[in-house]
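dumping this here so i dont lose it
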């Protein structure tokens, strides 16, 4: 019987389904791995106030019970982290990774919400930088998050990206992937992988008239899924990039504020 590979997402629930845990589980399914989830926060949006975000953290005791259920009770082949709403929660995740020796740790440092360049929870961001990133097999910040984590004013040019990648690798992350995304001023989306020795640049054409909410979550979930199946980081990144591009090309409108990516094929 073929082995069933299992991936875990530790993330927030976007109740409208665009991003977070929802996007992760859809991606795991498409990549042929068994997906499990630990819910950290619930994110609701206000339709009458420009879709503003309201974040509701779950009790830490409940999150710990979820982690025990999956990590001790089932076991995982890869884990990715998403929105972690407090420094205390980051500590719990760090201790869980160490206690159960979780493999293929992919850290998506969700420090900001889409379209907002402001750190949501500064104490959690510091804990991610100081305690979680050193355990990461792969860390996948966008350019804004990379600037914060690398103690740089901005990450815009190719030289900026490579310097930020070096700094994040020096923090302990084995592989660093920095995503330019919609913040890029060029006609391309450029993602850069640094493994401590070599830089690999992946570029795709910039798309207009599409929706990319949840692209970061999907990208890191795709990498985690392929790592769970034994793929290399380089191969996982290339496949994740292709998958995300196709999902964005097939995106669709949800309401006057947002749209969603098409995860299914």
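and the seq i came up w/
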């Amino acid at each position: 019987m073929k082995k069933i590979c299992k991936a875990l997402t530790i993330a927030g629930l976007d109740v409208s389904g665009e991003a977070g845990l929802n996007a992760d589980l859809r991606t795991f399914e498409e990549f042929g791995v068994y997906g499990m989830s630990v819910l950290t926060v619930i994110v609701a949006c206000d339709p009458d106030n420009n879709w503003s975000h309201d974040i509701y953290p779950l009790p830490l005791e409940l999150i710990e019970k979820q982690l025990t259920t999956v990590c001790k009770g089932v076991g995982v082949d890869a884990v990715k982290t998403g929105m972690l709403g407090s420094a205390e929660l980051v500590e719990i995740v760090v201790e869980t990774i160490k206690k159960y020796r979780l493999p293929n740790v992919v850290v998506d440092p969700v420090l900001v919400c889409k379209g907002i360049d402001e750190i949501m929870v500064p104490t959690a961001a510091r804990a991610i930088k100081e305690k979680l990133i050193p355990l990461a097999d792969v860390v996948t910040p966008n350019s804004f998050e990379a600037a914060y984590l690398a103690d740089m004013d901005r990450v815009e040019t190719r030289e900026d990206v490579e310097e930020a990648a070096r700094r994040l690798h020096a923090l302990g992350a084995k592989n660093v992937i920095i995503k330019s995304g919609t913040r890029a001023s060029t006609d391309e989306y450029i993602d850069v992988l640094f493994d401590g020795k070599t830089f690999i640049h992946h570029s795709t054409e910039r798309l207009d008239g599409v929706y990319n909410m949840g692209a970061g979550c999907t990208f890191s979930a795709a990498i985690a899924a392929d790592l769970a199946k034994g793929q290399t980081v380089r191969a996982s990144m290339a496949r994740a990039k292709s998958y995300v591009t196709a999902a964005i090309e097939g995106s669709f409108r949800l309401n006057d504020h947002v749209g969603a990516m098409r995860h299914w094929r």
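The two ends are 26 Å apart (CA to CA).
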